[in-house]
Design brief:
The complex is a heterodimer. Chain A is α+β, with helices and mostly antiparallel strands. Chain A has 4 helices and 7 strands; from the N terminus they run E-H-H-E-E-E-E-E-E-H-H. Chain B starts with 5 loop residues before the first helix and ends with a helix. Classes of the chains: A alpha+beta, B mainly alpha.
Protein backbone atom coordinates (compact mmCIF):
# COMPACT_ATOMS: atom_id res chain seq x y z
CA UNK A 1 0.00 0.00 0.00
CA UNK A 2 1.14 3.42 -0.75
CA UNK A 3 -0.24 6.86 -1.31
CA UNK A 4 0.48 9.98 -3.27
CA UNK A 5 0.16 13.37 -1.63
CA UNK A 6 0.49 16.69 -3.41
CA UNK A 7 -0.03 20.30 -2.30
CA UNK A 8 -0.68 23.23 -4.65
CA UNK A 9 -1.35 26.93 -4.26
CA UNK A 10 -3.92 28.18 -6.73
CA UNK A 11 -4.75 31.84 -7.35
CA UNK A 12 -8.49 31.28 -7.26
CA UNK A 13 -11.03 31.21 -4.46
CA UNK A 14 -11.97 27.78 -3.00
CA UNK A 15 -15.51 27.93 -4.44
CA UNK A 16 -14.15 28.18 -7.99
CA UNK A 17 -11.58 25.44 -7.44
CA UNK A 18 -14.22 23.23 -5.87
CA UNK A 19 -16.52 23.51 -8.89
CA UNK A 20 -13.59 22.47 -11.08
CA UNK A 21 -13.20 19.35 -8.94
CA UNK A 22 -16.73 18.04 -9.03
CA UNK A 23 -18.56 19.25 -12.14
CA UNK A 24 -18.34 17.48 -15.48
CA UNK A 25 -17.19 20.69 -17.15
CA UNK A 26 -14.54 21.22 -14.51
CA UNK A 27 -13.29 17.65 -14.51
CA UNK A 28 -13.26 17.68 -18.30
CA UNK A 29 -10.90 20.62 -18.29
CA UNK A 30 -8.03 19.23 -16.30
CA UNK A 31 -8.20 15.46 -15.74
CA UNK A 32 -5.20 13.62 -17.18
CA UNK A 33 -1.54 14.55 -17.11
CA UNK A 34 -0.94 15.73 -20.69
CA UNK A 35 -2.28 18.43 -22.92
CA UNK A 36 -4.43 15.85 -24.60
CA UNK A 37 -8.18 16.07 -24.56
CA UNK A 38 -10.60 14.68 -22.06
CA UNK A 39 -12.88 12.81 -24.42
CA UNK A 40 -15.86 12.68 -22.13
CA UNK A 41 -16.68 13.54 -18.55
CA UNK A 42 -19.81 12.81 -16.58
CA UNK A 43 -20.25 13.68 -12.93
CA UNK A 44 -23.09 13.64 -10.45
CA UNK A 45 -21.61 15.57 -7.54
CA UNK A 46 -23.61 14.33 -4.60
CA UNK A 47 -22.81 11.66 -2.03
CA UNK A 48 -23.37 8.33 -3.79
CA UNK A 49 -23.28 9.99 -7.20
CA UNK A 50 -20.69 8.76 -9.67
CA UNK A 51 -18.23 10.19 -12.16
CA UNK A 52 -16.82 8.78 -15.35
CA UNK A 53 -13.92 10.34 -17.22
CA UNK A 54 -12.37 9.26 -20.47
CA UNK A 55 -9.14 10.91 -21.57
CA UNK A 56 -6.20 10.41 -23.86
CA UNK A 57 -2.55 10.64 -22.83
CA UNK A 58 0.33 11.93 -24.97
CA UNK A 59 1.26 8.36 -25.92
CA UNK A 60 -2.06 8.16 -27.78
CA UNK A 61 -3.63 5.69 -25.36
CA UNK A 62 -7.14 6.19 -24.06
CA UNK A 63 -7.95 5.77 -20.39
CA UNK A 64 -11.18 5.69 -18.52
CA UNK A 65 -11.70 5.92 -14.81
CA UNK A 66 -14.75 5.99 -12.65
CA UNK A 67 -15.78 6.21 -9.04
CA UNK A 68 -18.28 7.54 -6.57
CA UNK A 69 -18.42 10.69 -4.53
CA UNK A 70 -18.07 9.42 -0.96
CA UNK A 71 -17.98 12.71 0.91
CA UNK A 72 -18.73 16.22 -0.24
CA UNK A 73 -18.21 19.31 1.93
CA UNK A 74 -18.60 22.40 -0.21
CA UNK A 75 -16.25 24.09 -0.83
CA UNK A 76 -13.51 22.52 1.24
CA UNK A 77 -13.38 18.78 0.81
CA UNK A 78 -14.32 16.00 -1.56
CA UNK A 79 -13.59 12.27 -1.28
CA UNK A 80 -14.03 9.92 -4.21
CA UNK A 81 -13.53 6.24 -4.82
CA UNK A 82 -11.50 5.62 -7.94
CA UNK A 83 -10.80 2.78 -10.34
CA UNK A 84 -9.63 2.30 -13.90
CA UNK A 85 -11.97 0.78 -16.46
CA UNK A 86 -9.90 1.29 -19.58
CA UNK A 87 -6.14 1.68 -19.81
CA UNK A 88 -4.64 3.26 -16.72
CA UNK A 89 -1.97 1.57 -14.67
CA UNK A 90 -2.10 -2.09 -15.51
CA UNK A 91 -1.24 -3.27 -12.01
CA UNK A 92 -4.08 -1.22 -10.55
CA UNK A 93 -6.75 -2.69 -12.76
CA UNK A 94 -9.82 -3.87 -10.90
CA UNK A 95 -8.66 -2.26 -7.67
CA UNK A 96 -10.36 0.59 -5.92
CA UNK A 97 -8.42 3.47 -4.45
CA UNK A 98 -9.44 6.63 -2.65
CA UNK A 99 -8.97 10.19 -3.80
CA UNK A 100 -9.32 12.97 -1.26
CA UNK A 101 -8.96 16.64 -2.12
CA UNK A 102 -9.03 19.32 0.55
CA UNK A 103 -9.16 23.07 -0.06
CA UNK A 104 -8.08 25.75 2.39
CA UNK A 105 -8.50 29.46 1.79
CA UNK A 106 -5.21 31.36 1.87
CA UNK A 107 -4.31 35.00 1.12
CA UNK A 108 -3.51 34.31 -2.48
CA UNK A 109 -6.46 32.01 -3.11
CA UNK A 110 -6.57 28.33 -2.28
CA UNK A 111 -4.24 25.72 -0.92
CA UNK A 112 -5.16 22.37 -2.43
CA UNK A 113 -4.07 19.06 -0.91
CA UNK A 114 -4.60 15.92 -2.96
CA UNK A 115 -4.17 12.48 -1.42
CA UNK A 116 -4.57 9.41 -3.60
CA UNK A 117 -4.47 6.54 -1.12
CA UNK A 118 -4.86 2.82 -0.85
CA UNK A 119 -3.01 2.35 -4.07
CA UNK A 120 -2.11 -1.27 -4.21
CA UNK A 121 1.59 -1.74 -4.50
CA UNK A 122 2.49 -5.34 -5.03
CA UNK A 123 6.13 -4.65 -5.62
CA UNK A 124 6.67 -2.84 -2.35
CA UNK A 125 4.37 -5.15 -0.45
CA UNK A 126 6.53 -8.11 -1.29
CA UNK A 127 7.62 -9.10 2.17
CA UNK A 128 9.53 -6.07 3.22
CA UNK A 129 8.87 -4.60 6.62
CA UNK A 130 10.21 -1.06 6.36
CA UNK A 131 9.04 -0.48 2.80
CA UNK A 132 11.86 -0.10 0.36
CA UNK A 133 10.07 2.91 -1.08
CA UNK A 134 11.76 5.18 1.44
CA UNK A 135 15.02 3.29 1.17
CA UNK A 136 15.03 3.68 -2.58
CA UNK A 137 14.31 7.38 -2.39
CA UNK A 138 17.17 7.83 0.06
CA UNK A 139 19.42 5.94 -2.28
CA UNK A 140 18.42 8.11 -5.21
CA UNK A 141 19.20 11.25 -3.24
CA UNK A 142 22.63 9.94 -2.44
CA UNK A 143 23.34 8.69 -5.88
CA UNK A 144 21.54 10.74 -8.49
CA UNK A 145 23.62 9.14 -11.24
CA UNK A 146 21.57 5.97 -10.88
CA UNK A 147 18.76 7.97 -12.44
CA UNK A 148 20.74 9.01 -15.45
CA UNK A 149 20.16 7.20 -18.66
CA UNK A 150 22.77 4.53 -19.01
CA UNK A 151 25.14 5.00 -21.91
CA UNK A 152 25.51 1.29 -22.50
CA UNK B 1 1.07 5.09 -19.17
CA UNK B 2 2.36 1.58 -18.75
CA UNK B 3 5.70 2.00 -20.42
CA UNK B 4 7.86 -0.01 -18.07
CA UNK B 5 8.77 -3.60 -18.38
CA UNK B 6 7.05 -5.61 -15.70
CA UNK B 7 9.53 -8.43 -15.60
CA UNK B 8 12.53 -6.21 -15.19
CA UNK B 9 10.73 -4.23 -12.49
CA UNK B 10 9.94 -7.43 -10.62
CA UNK B 11 13.61 -8.29 -10.64
CA UNK B 12 14.72 -4.85 -9.50
CA UNK B 13 12.24 -4.81 -6.64
CA UNK B 14 13.11 -8.37 -5.67
CA UNK B 15 16.78 -7.39 -5.63
CA UNK B 16 15.98 -4.41 -3.42
CA UNK B 17 13.87 -6.47 -1.02
CA UNK B 18 16.98 -7.79 0.73
CA UNK B 19 18.54 -5.61 3.46
CA UNK B 20 22.12 -6.70 2.68
CA UNK B 21 21.73 -5.84 -0.98
CA UNK B 22 20.24 -2.46 -0.08
CA UNK B 23 23.17 -1.84 2.26
CA UNK B 24 25.58 -2.76 -0.54
CA UNK B 25 23.89 -0.27 -2.86
CA UNK B 26 23.90 2.43 -0.22
CA UNK B 27 27.64 1.92 0.35
CA UNK B 28 28.27 2.05 -3.37
CA UNK B 29 26.16 5.17 -3.65
CA UNK B 30 28.49 6.89 -1.20
CA UNK B 31 31.76 5.51 -2.44
CA UNK B 32 31.22 5.18 -6.19
CA UNK B 33 33.50 2.23 -6.95
CA UNK B 34 34.77 -0.23 -4.32
CA UNK B 35 36.80 -3.40 -4.48
CA UNK B 36 34.89 -6.49 -3.44
CA UNK B 37 37.08 -6.94 -0.36
CA UNK B 38 36.47 -3.46 0.99
CA UNK B 39 32.83 -3.65 0.01
CA UNK B 40 32.40 -6.88 1.98
CA UNK B 41 34.32 -5.62 5.02
CA UNK B 42 31.54 -4.09 7.15
CA UNK B 43 29.15 -6.98 6.57
CA UNK B 44 28.80 -9.67 9.11
CA UNK B 45 28.67 -12.41 6.49
CA UNK B 46 31.22 -14.48 4.63
CA UNK B 47 32.65 -13.38 1.33
CA UNK B 48 30.87 -16.08 -0.72
CA UNK B 49 27.54 -14.84 0.65
CA UNK B 50 28.44 -11.30 -0.34
CA UNK B 51 29.40 -12.58 -3.79
CA UNK B 52 25.97 -14.17 -4.13
CA UNK B 53 24.29 -10.87 -3.36
CA UNK B 54 26.54 -9.15 -5.88
CA UNK B 55 25.53 -11.74 -8.48
CA UNK B 56 21.88 -10.88 -7.93
CA UNK B 57 22.56 -7.15 -8.19
CA UNK B 58 24.66 -7.62 -11.33
CA UNK B 59 22.09 -9.88 -13.01
CA UNK B 60 19.44 -7.28 -12.32
CA UNK B 61 21.69 -4.66 -13.88
CA UNK B 62 21.93 -2.59 -10.72
CA UNK B 63 25.71 -2.88 -10.39
CA UNK B 64 28.62 -3.30 -12.72
CA UNK B 65 31.79 -5.27 -11.99
CA UNK B 66 35.09 -4.42 -13.62
CA UNK B 67 38.32 -6.32 -13.28
CA UNK B 68 41.61 -4.47 -12.98
CA UNK B 69 44.44 -6.99 -12.67
CA UNK B 70 43.42 -9.18 -9.75
CA UNK B 71 41.02 -6.73 -8.21
CA UNK B 72 37.32 -6.64 -9.04
CA UNK B 73 35.69 -3.27 -8.57
CA UNK B 74 31.99 -2.82 -8.13
CA UNK B 75 29.93 0.26 -8.91
CA UNK B 76 26.30 1.20 -9.31
CA UNK B 77 25.17 1.03 -12.92
CA UNK B 78 24.10 4.48 -14.06
CA UNK B 79 20.42 4.74 -14.86
CA UNK B 80 19.62 1.32 -13.48
CA UNK B 81 17.13 2.50 -10.89
CA UNK B 82 15.30 4.85 -13.19
CA UNK B 83 12.54 2.43 -14.25
CA UNK B 84 11.83 1.60 -10.61
CA UNK B 85 11.71 5.24 -9.61
CA UNK B 86 9.46 6.13 -12.54
CA UNK B 87 7.20 3.29 -11.55
CA UNK B 88 7.05 4.59 -7.99
CA UNK B 89 6.33 8.09 -9.13
CA UNK B 90 3.78 7.24 -11.79
CA UNK B 91 0.78 8.51 -9.84
CA UNK B 92 2.72 11.50 -8.66
CA UNK B 93 3.41 12.43 -12.28
CA UNK B 94 -0.20 11.73 -13.23
CA UNK B 95 -1.62 14.02 -10.58
CA UNK B 96 1.08 16.62 -10.84
CA UNK B 97 0.34 17.04 -14.56
CA UNK B 98 -3.38 17.10 -13.91
CA UNK B 99 -3.05 19.70 -11.15
CA UNK B 100 -1.06 21.96 -13.48
CA UNK B 101 -4.07 21.97 -15.75
CA UNK B 102 -6.53 22.38 -12.88
CA UNK B 103 -4.56 25.40 -11.67
CA UNK B 104 -4.64 27.03 -15.11
CA UNK B 105 -8.36 26.33 -15.45
CA UNK B 106 -9.36 27.62 -12.00
CA UNK B 107 -7.17 30.71 -12.29
CA UNK B 108 -8.72 31.59 -15.64
CA UNK B 109 -12.17 31.21 -14.07
CA UNK B 110 -11.13 33.41 -11.16
CA UNK B 111 -9.88 36.14 -13.51
CA UNK B 112 -13.14 35.99 -15.42
CA UNK B 113 -15.18 36.18 -12.20
CA UNK B 114 -13.12 39.14 -10.98
CA UNK B 115 -13.64 40.97 -14.28
CA UNK B 116 -17.40 40.56 -14.29
CA UNK B 117 -17.78 41.41 -10.60
CA UNK B 118 -19.45 44.79 -10.06
Amino acid sequence: MTEVSLVRHIAARPAIVFEALVTAEGIGSWWGPDDCPVISAVADPQVGGSFLVRFRTADGLEHECTGEFLEIERPVRVVMSWRWIVGGMIDERGKVSRLEICLRPIDTGTELTLVHARLSNEHSGRGHEGGWDGALRKLIRRFPASLEVSST
Amino acid sequence: MVNYREERLDRVFAALSDPTRRAVLTRLARARALSITSLAEPFDIKLPAVMKHLDVLAETGLIRRTKTGRTVHVEIAAGSLKPAVLWLQRYERFWSGSLDRLTAYAEAKERKAAETAP
